[in-house]
Amino acid sequence: MTRLCLPADYPRIRRVGSFDELVNTPFADGVNALCWERPLAGDFGEVVEALAAGEGITSLDESTLRALPVGAAGKAAVGIMLKDMKMLEHCGLMPELNCIRNYLRDDEPGVVRTDVYSFHADRATVEADTYLCTYHGPASEILRNEEARRHIDIPATRAALLEEYDGDDDEGFAEYLAELCYDLHYAAAPQAKPIGLGLGNLWRIAVAYPGCPVPPCVHRAPDNLPGLPPRLLLIS
């Protein structure tokens, strides 16, 4: 795996050198994404081929992975993924490992798309973070906060949402926007350059919750374009 090229002039992302540092470094001074960059051994493509997963999302557990008919390199990849899951579980988290051919898209996108292919922030009611690692296939992307604008803050979009709501721009409208997650989705500036998260790197990104000291990290799943391989994604 090639070295991840992070923009040197973007101070919201910080590299860390270990899992302990990833978990224990507080988000502060505007930093809202931590990256533990790792060159991983093992053949994750062999794992994907052995899974022969169908459309949509296939959830993977330890018994499924250990039963796969893979060689030594494939077994090494399985061991890495299981180790990552156990490390997160030991921190009290509930990681999921999935083989993803495609996510569901909004059947009728309406004024604002709210599927994971749209740039968005995660939200929680208590202090929380999102961890993610792409082992194979297209990687997730981050959008610089400075190049992101909430759809609901764009006058034309807000007007269209008000028409959809059929009411006044008041507290009830704000609750409506939050209930449908419209307030979590962002438009990219015309010249925006999303940052790919690379393969094998374990990330911790900031979530929107009451009292969060930094802006939430705006991110999205990559488009599943024809010909691209399925993703192996760990997320918690």
List the helices and strands and how they pair.
Elements: E1 13-16, H1 19-24, E2 33-36, H2 44-51, E3 57-60, H3 62-66, H4 72-90, E4 96-100, E5 129-136, E6 141-143, E7 148-150, H5 155-165, H6 171-179, E8 186-188, E9 195-196, E10 202-206, E11 218-220, E12 231-235
Parallel strand pairs: 1-2
Antiparallel strand pairs: 2-10, 3-4, 4-12, 5-10, 5-12, 6-9, 6-11, 7-8
Helix pairs in contact: 2-4
Rg, nearest Å: 19 Å
Proportion of residues in helical segments: 10-25%
Helix-and-strand structural type: alpha+beta
Number of helices: 6
Shape: globular
H/E order of the elements? EHEHEHHEEEEHHEEEEE
Overall tally of domains: 1
Structural summary, described in words:
Strand 1, helix 1 and strand 2 form a beta-alpha-beta unit. With 236 residues, the protein is α+β, with helices and mostly antiparallel strands. It contains 6 helices and 12 strands. Helix 2 crosses helix 4. It has one domain. The chain has a 7-stranded mixed β-sheet with strand order 1-2-10-5-12-4-3. Strands 9-6-11 form a 3-stranded antiparallel β-sheet, with no helix packed on it. The mean pLDDT is 91.
In short:
The protein is of the alpha+beta class. It contains six helices and twelve strands. The strands form three sheets. The protein has a seven-stranded mixed β-sheet.
Descriptive keywords:
three-stranded antiparallel β-sheet, 236 residues, alpha+beta, seven-stranded mixed β-sheet, 6 helices, single chain
